[in-house]
Predict the structure.
Amino acid sequence: MALCCGLVSEKNVPVPLKSICVQLQVRGHVSSVRATLQYVNEEERPLEALFVFPLPAEAALCSFSASVGGQDIRGELRDKQTARDEYDDGVSAGRQVFLLEESDQSADVFRLSVGCLPAGGAATVSFTYSTELTVEEDGGLRYCLPAVLNPRYTPAAATGVPQVCSASVIPYSLSLTADVRSSVPIARLDCNCALEPLQFLDPQHTHAQVSLSAGHRFDKDVELLLYYVDPHQPSAVLEGGAATAPAGSLMADPLLMLSLYPEFPAAVMSSLTSHGEFIFLVDQSGSMDCPMHHGEGAQMRIESARDTLLLLLKSLPLGCYFNIYGFGSSFQAFFPQSVLYSEQTLQEALQRVKLMRANLGGTEILQPLQHIYSQACVPEHPRQLFIFTDGEVWNTRELLDLVRANSSSHRCFSFGIGEGASTALIAGMAKEGSGHAQFITGSDRMQPKVMQSLRFALQPAVEELCVDWRLPEGVAVELLSPPVRSLYQGQRALLYARLRGQSSAESDGAVMIKYKLKDTPVTNQLQFTLTPAGDTGLTVHWLAARTLIRGLEQEERVGGAEAEALRSRIVELSVECGVSSTHTAFICTHTHSGETVKGPLLQRNIPVPQMMACHGAPRRMMCAAPMARCSSRALPKMVCDSAMSPSRKLKSARVSHHSVPVGLVECDSASTHEPDLRQDPLLQLVSLQKASGSWEMSSALSAVLEKPEEELRKHTPPQADGLLWATVLSLLWLFSCKLQDRVEWQFVALKAAAWVRAQNQAGVAECVRNGNLLLDCQLTAETLGI
């Protein structure tokens, strides 16, 4: 259970937030979201409240307003320090004031300060943000409304103490409606929460609306998966500029958004490399000893990670190198350096995987990453880094800078485990490392998503990518998106471009994406119109501005003489486009009545919905701490210290104004949870495969096949040895009994088929015939790839 150490009201109600209303507009591959939050001060004294909440890391926060006493107040973007000073001055003067800002440490966390609500007073705040929809492995477009702000572990060397808003009870409700429009028909819309029936508003099924069912409790992320007919169709959206924007500004010019799905040659994509150095970095912090979801039969996160490592290790090709690191407050490497993949090293690694526990304390990714990058790469074996974590860190920007600084030496594939994993961290590491990010939430299985990323890592990399424009005379283009450094089969690339000038004759343009795959030149072309399609809003402009701002923020963090000039440019662009940045904040001040709020000011933290992951587990507790509003106020000693081992006790610390978000302080002690030795038959079969790709006849294999070992041995073809017979049987079982899980065992089967072909034995055909009779199936050698 959670220990609530923070301030609560006399009625034991810690929150003045009453409701959240979300209106979602989807236009093709992007969305615009308007959220409205209603506050009521039920205290007997004036109130100052702080609400910390997550948003997608790449979201463009583009408007903020408040309504007090029937008067609407539009927020204005200011330099962040100026806005903070204005907020503090307003609170001191007793004015009702609101401040909305992005965290200094992580781009996916925002904080809303609500100042000077009088006793019995009410206020409504609204903000709007735009974001790109992420592409899932099945072609669906994912929108996530995050309800969970996971504990963000702060390394001991960092200043400040992470804090929590405990939410064992979430006393506010959520309503959500979605309006979807597309140039192609909408196939369906799925959700992890109960929805009202989807309503199509036109015969072509290109316009639909849906809403959450009444009575929804905001106790988990809301995930919508949108499926279009022919989802890989490239598209272009031309958005007209804002009529009120100054001429020549970014917001005044038309912007083009290209959605590209490169089609790679099948012959090239079918060839998987046998080279590479594969490094697996696995979170073993205490928070990994939590369930993957809150339904029945949920695995613990560390158990799912162990099963996934088994599949990964068995799927690696012969001839590669590999290593595994576990990390928490410290880190451990399986081998001093990456080792050649062989039966001996595979078995040694598997034995250590079985012993992995969520017992390494807090979550510090920085040190193991620094160590990995300090290791020399294996010549002729491109480094592929796989990172598994539930994303509970707070030095996000420092980590991303490290990955970016080493981007030329590796590709980074990241996996966010469980609801609330930081999108800034998970998506950011993959983006900076030219890899791919996956999020495993709800009842998702980790293994299929990880196997998709492994396929990306084994496929040829895109080289010499360039963008070539074909525009009529008089029209110029400026590409606003950074260079595309990685492309994978089935993945989408969104590009933003600014158009200037106009043509009196032609009204169409074209763009060509050119690159090389394994020395094979490839060209993808897309045509588009130069005439905006009516009132398209400003979503594309906001996202393009956010792209430019993010790029400038990265340049600024590199430092150097240009840092101050870059900071000024960020603030200028942010204010000009109305899109927040790390250096700006929205400020609203209510001065209508001219009256000041009098009396002592109470402080309240508004809890973010928090998944209480380890219900009833006495070894882990979650503690709440109040936010210090002034640098002269110190945080109280955490009452959970006595429950922790001496090495993990938290120290009281002073927190400067606006320095640390409300997060979760976890009191991790060594986990005593034993691994679940029960495996499904697929994992049992995979665990029996040798590094070479073969199986041998054994009682364990017969148990998976559900046939007596004596019967299996009796039907061994005369021209086949035991290894060949066992391997063909295993392939037959996979294709006949586990075809629906093929994405998980595809590389296991490819390696087995390659081994069978290499044996060049005459008994293969008879093995297939006898196996079909034993397992009651009808498969051919061609189907098995042998």
In short: The CA atoms of residues 413 and 436 lie 5 Å apart. Residues 539-558 form the longest helix (20 residues).
